[in-house]
Amino acid sequence: MGRGRILALPYPAQGHVSPMMAFCRVLEKHGFKITFVNTDFNHKRIVRAGVGKDSLSMGSNNINFVSIPDGLDPEDERNELEFPKLCQSMLLTMPAKLEELVRGINSNAAAASGGRGGLAGGTDDDDDDKITCFITEFGMSWALEVADKMGIKGAAYYPMCTTFCNATSFFAPNKELEAFLNSDGIKGCGTDQLPEEVQKILSLPTGDLDTLKIIFEYSARNLKAMEKTEWWLCNSAYELEPDEFAKVPRLLPIGPNLAEISGSSRAQFFQEDSSCLEWLDQQPPCSVIYVAFGSVATFEPTQFQELALGLDLTNRPFLWVVRPNIINSSSCAFPDEFKGTRGKIVTWAPQPRVLNHPSIACFLSHCGWNSTIEGLSSAVPFLCWPFFADQITNKMCICDVWKVGVGFDPDDNHGIIRRSEIKKKVDLLFGDDNIRARSSQLRDTVLSTTAEGGRSSKNLNKFINWLRE
């Protein structure tokens, strides 16, 4: 019996594309075919990073990569500061383009089925090429409106931690935005409309009322569209966030879904430098500080220089990922006094393989959810340096709930994390055997829930059975 083809639609950012791809790889192993939809802009980035269109097959005949426009011009910025502009543009452009794409795919599948089936009208297996289910990220759930219009079932997938999901869902679609905002932006802590803990978790900006309204309206549109499906899936585990899952019983933990260690199937926006693995082979066990801040976060030049000098000051080997656009400046300038003799610097790393390397001692991270679950799954303690959004929440979980990492304290005068603070916290982490022991225990918990018979594994099987109906 044909199962149909799944359409997967992630939010167009590296930290969202990667977990959706990991989830699709899981579904592929259960026999499903997937059409993976990127924006035109990101599709080109993935092709460049993989060195050619052939890289998109990634050893699979069951995942097909396609793209549609996001409505912005190629030269337009798509970083976190331009999030509202991108959201507006996507809502204006992508629904019609997505419907056009799906109708074309299903029309071609029907034509092929008729041609092969003759008078019998085709076989059940021919239906495998028709889109029969949408899996959209929470942040792209407006696409479920398209699925509903076309009579196609759908599911929503949340790639981040449940704590942040619950906080962002606080702004329900039927709420008046003005209840949360005033002329200065977010209302102050302690108001009836915006609980203090929600403001802390969201780390929302003040000022720019129009921008905040765009964010809330986009979220409200997605939340309303999510009511069209009974399946709200989450890339987390009940064992990691039991209290948060208890608040939203319909949110089903099926993770964490981890990227394959090989790195060849992770749909990367940047070309990976695997030479760092050879360098790691030459380092002593549990000695290297791995430093990576994801694909979006940026530094002011002064803070970047303090980080460089802080790594030097630790007098420990380090592997540092420095993207070309990581500094808010026209050039990536290391300070003159930076030696870096004990480190290796790359523009992008095969992170799952790095974190599983025996020479890695700790992970200096921006605390994005993908990095968080990859670190947890490798029993690597964290040095937490979050920037915005869910990274703030993840840092709280790492340091205060799971107690498998430490954070940095900026100085009182300029808000800069100084080189001395970096050395202090590195030394603290290297000397804390309890953190390392808790990291190992948490790794075992994370891996057991996705193993056969684990809670996340059982939930995933329920969803797969529904897909096959």
Distinctive features:
single chain; 469 residues; alpha/beta; Rossmann fold; 2 domains; 7-stranded parallel β-sheet; 6-stranded parallel β-sheet; 16 helices; globular
Q: What is Rg?
A: 23 Å
Strand order of the largest sheet: 3-2-1-4-5-8-9
**CATH fold title of the largest domain:** Rossmann fold
Tell me the name of the CATH class of the largest domain: Alpha Beta
Task: Describe the overall structure.
The chain has 469 residues and is α/β, with parallel strands linked by helices. It has 2 domains: 5-235, Glycogen Phosphorylase B (Rossmann fold, 3-Layer(aba) Sandwich); 275-448, Rossmann fold. 42% of the residues lie in helices and 14% in strands. It has 16 helices and 15 strands. Strands 3-2-1-4-5-8-9 form a 7-stranded parallel beta sheet, with helices on both faces. Strands 12-11-10-13-14-15 form a 6-stranded parallel beta sheet, sandwiched between helices. Strand 8 (232-234), helix 8 and strand 9 (251-253) form a beta-alpha-beta unit. It is globular. It starts with a strand and ends with a helix. GO terms for molecular function: UDP-glycosyltransferase activity. InterPro entries: UDP_glucos_trans. Pfam families: UDPGT.
Quick summary:
The chain is of the alpha/beta class. It has a seven-stranded parallel beta sheet, with helices on both faces. Strands 12-11-10-13-14-15 form a six-stranded parallel beta sheet, sandwiched between helices. A two-stranded antiparallel ribbon has the order 6-7. About 6% of the residues have low confidence.
